[in-house]
Design goal:
30% helix, alpha+beta, D-amino Acid Aminotransferase, Chain A, domain 1
Amino acid sequence: MSRRIVILMGGWSAERDVSLVSGAAVAAALADSGDDVRAIDVQPDPQQLLAMMTPRPDVVFNALHGRYGEDGCFQGLLNILRVPYTHSGLLASAVAMHKPTAKRLFADAGIPVAEDCIIDGAALLAGDPMPRPYVVKPLDEGSSVGIRIVRDGDRPATSENSAEFGARVMVERFIPGRELTVAVMGDRPLAVTEITTEHGFYDYDAKYADGGSRHVIPAQLAPAVYDEAMALSLTAHRTLGCRGVSRADLRYDGERLYMLEVNTQPGMTPTSLVPEQAAYAGIGFAELCRWMVDQAEYDA
């Protein structure tokens, strides 16, 4: 039986452009599914969105990234409408997006995380809050938006550049070493990918620009480390209460793995890591999208 599937994409977060690419890729993948598929470029107008979703869809594929689409806001609206949607529910989405809360849950679950502190952006003017190198992060952004690494020799914060960090920020000890990521599909970690880049770290451009990064899959790690990365990612997925597909980002300093964050709505672009890991596991892109639609639900 044909279903009416609405793909939400675009939005108005800093990740709008990436979301549009993700949504278009999903729409193309589902075009031959036999379902009635419609993509909506979401604008900051709830009444318009509700009108565009009439008649009510059978399933929503949430291809939004960043604030509002990934942080529980749209999940709450879809719960009210009782429309099944892909990816995690309201609580898991909100908690995963708020880095300090997610890290507390990870630590309580025995997942190693880097030391951090939460300070006002203006407090950076008073001097380094911890020994360099350290990372300054917004509390609730994705795709490395707004992240800055402060190393020896970097200029300190000034009244001009401290404003870029926002009112409150997370300052986290920088973990040297290797950048790893693991996609979790349901209760199945798919693979470990190592990410290398010439950008200094895996920033927004490295994630999405052609040639911005190199993905090594499977990551060339000792078997015990590889297995631990898979296990920690599954534990993080379960700890947050995620469903559908998530992607965990980790650092490995040669001795220990550290969990950085879990992305509850990872990218579905041609250069994205989740489709790449799914393909490595023998799951094509169209099959992955259909699985996500089949697993869609709302919070009862």
